[in-house]
Amino acid sequence: MAQPPSPRTPLPPGSCDCHTHVFLDPRAYPWSPTRRYTPPEASIAELAQLHAALGIARVVVVQPSVYAADNAATLQALRVLGPQRARGVAVIDDAMADAELDAMHALGVRGVRVNLEIDQASDAGHATAQLQRTAARVARLGWHVQVYANLPLLAACAEVLGALPVPVVLDHYAGAHAAGGVQQPGLQAMLALVEAGHAYVKLSAPYRLSAAPFYADMQALARLFLRTRPDRMLWGSDWPHPQPGTRADPHDTSPPFAVDSAQVLDALRAWAGDEATFHRILVDNPARLYGF
Predict the structure, then answer these.
(1) pLDDT of the residue at 122
(2) Within 10 A of 284 (CB to CB), how many other CB atoms are there?
(3) Which of 60, 101, 157, 251 lies deepest, with the highest CB count within 10 Å?
(4) Does position 103 have pLDDT exceeding 80, yes or no?
(5) pLDDT value of position 276
(6) Distances in whole angstroms, Cα of residue 228 to Cα of each of 20, 204, 254, 264
(7) Could you give phi then psi for residue 61, rounded to 5 degrees?
(8) CB distance 223 to 6 below 8 Å
(9) Which tens digit of pLDDT belongs to each residue from 231-268?
(10) Where does residue 108 fall: left (phi above 0), alpha (psi -120 to 50 degrees), or beta otherwise?
(11) Burial letters for 127-137: b for 16+ Cβ neighbours within 10 Å, e otherwise?
(12) Bridge partners of residue 16, in order along the sequence
């Protein structure tokens, strides 16, 4: 792996990358047979090398869909990176016993992910039932529920999201695309959740939502979220930038997006407008949510 670039200005001490994955040797950590894509391997050592170049001190490793509810690779990353540095977000199913959740908590898991995007889910009734069931399982642990879904589906679930007994984290700009602008349908419902303190938003993976060089068209959305509640904003690199759907056969390896995370951080720093807000996004907010 080539040495990754660094941000133009060093990041504040204690900065956290709140959205990463690891894809380990499939001989030891096999892919789910029902996966929708196959990524290339992305090791814990490569993740650490990226963070050393960026100046990232803390990390949240998020369970990707290719492992379904087998969290072994994510948990291995937490073991290797250690409790001072790493937290995790798992995926659970109805068969998982409370004792297994307790064991994951001891390793640093602090949230559970509900990925409604990988299958392009659109049924709000099914989605809200899954969200309620998941939140009920993890509320006793103080975990949050992280949701990856398109903006129309999130908006249809807004009332339930606001009533969950746990914090909610919305992936990747809450699914808002730059092309839709700041008045796109569904966005106001997400902003209301954020303003009420019910939800955090990850200002992550702009390359999934942008059509402009250097993601410049995401600036208006980023600043809108930041004006609403800067204390509810997070940042994540989405490393190693998986790109589902580029191969007709999900068992064929799909190349990742080519992303310069230093460039993304430089843009976010400019959009934040001042160093105090940037510090909130990178340090204060993740420390509070993930318990660093």
Answers:
(1) 76
(2) 17
(3) 60
(4) yes
(5) 98
(6) 25, 17, 37, 21
(7) -95, 120
(8) no
(9) 999 999 999 999 888 898 999 999 999 999 999 999 99
(10) left
(11) bbebbbebbeb
(12) 58
What SS3 string covers the chain?
Answer: CCCCCCCCCCCCCCCEEEEECCECCCCCCCCCCCCCCECCCECHHHHHHHHHHHCCCEEEEECCHHHCCCCHHHHHHHHHHCCCCEEEEECCCCCCCHHHHHHHHHHCEEEEEEECCCCCCCCHHHHHHHHHHHHHHHHHHCCEEEEECCHHHHHHCHHHHHHCCCCEEECHHHHCCHHHCCCCCCHHHHHHHHHCCCEEEECCCHHHCCCCHHHHHHHHHHHHHHHHCHHHEECCCCECCCCCCCCCCCCCECCCCCCCHHHHHHHHHHHHCCHHHHHHHHHHHHHHHHCC
* Cα Rg of the chain (Å, integer): 18
pLDDT tens digit sequence for 124-145: 899 999 999 999 999 999 999 9
Angle at alpha carbon of residue 24, lines to 19 and 30, rounded to 5°: 115
Strand partners, 170: 147, 201
- How far from the centroid of its chain's Cα atoms is residue 258's Cα? 18
Query: Is residue 178 within 8 Å of residue 209, measured between CB atoms?
Result: yes
Question: Which residue has 């290339």 as its token pair?
Answer: 40
For the record, the structure tokens of 184 come out as 């796109």
pTM, 2 dp: 0.96
Among 89, 175, 174, 101, residue whose Cα is nearest residue 136: 101
Domains of the chain are 16-290 (3.20.20.140)
With tokens 């490569």, the residue in question is: 46
Q: Could you list the active site residues?
A: 238
Residues 37-50 pLDDT 10s: 999 999 999 999 99
